[in-house]
């Protein structure tokens, strides 16, 4: 989470444009959600987040490949990938 925070922007809510309304927008604070699990989100650039996840998986011991074309994925009876070609 600290690595995600380091590449992202803390957001306490979401801004929705409301043309014609006073102020021109509405802010929805995450604390007002029906079943709030967190009072904030972290806005990240997708390419940076993907790289962070990839690096974390590699550092955790997952066999990783870059610049590799996947031609097929076969799934086991449990629905999880069993073989990647």
**Per DSSP, what share of the residues sits in E-state strands of 2 or more residues?**
25-35%
N-to-C SSE string, H for helix and E for strand: HEEEEHEE
What would you call the structural class? alpha+beta
Average pLDDT, rounded to a whole number, is 92
**Number of contiguous helices:** 2
Distance between the termini: 32 Å
Strand tally: 6
Determine the fraction of residues in helical runs and give it as a percent range: 10-25%
Q: Largest beta sheet, briefly?
A: 2 strands, antiparallel
Name the quaternary structure. single chain
- CA radius of gyration: 20 Å
Low-confidence residue ranges: none
What is the general shape?
Answer: elongated
Tell me the strand order in the biggest sheet: 1-4
